[in-house]
Write a structure and sequence with these properties.
alpha/beta; Rossmann fold; about 20% strand; about 45% helix
Length: about 130
Amino acid sequence: MIFMIDDDEDALEIYSMLIEKSGYSDFFITYSSGVDALQALQEIHSANKKFPSYILLDLNMPELGGVDFVKEYEQKFYATYPSTEIMILTSSVREKDNEEALQYESVSKFISKPLSKEKLIQLLTESAS
């Protein structure tokens, strides 16, 4: 399962439409808010359901930015789900952004926006198996 968290509703809709045709739509869940995604993760954890393999996270969001999301995620979930990888989706070219996010153990890499359909399908294939 993959969670994609991005405040850009248009981007989420486009990715959802791409995935709908791939056969992996049941494994792809989008959130436009980090707060909503954290709440969903808490519900999954409490119900002892399958936790996401990947979290694709926009870095620059209102209310709860990407780095703040990662801080909360690591406090609440990382010890229990260390194999879940957070991949930062960003259009930022600032090295400081990369360095700040990569200091957290749960963040595995940066992916430049836009995310290619091929890369997204690859991640879905890996998370479904």
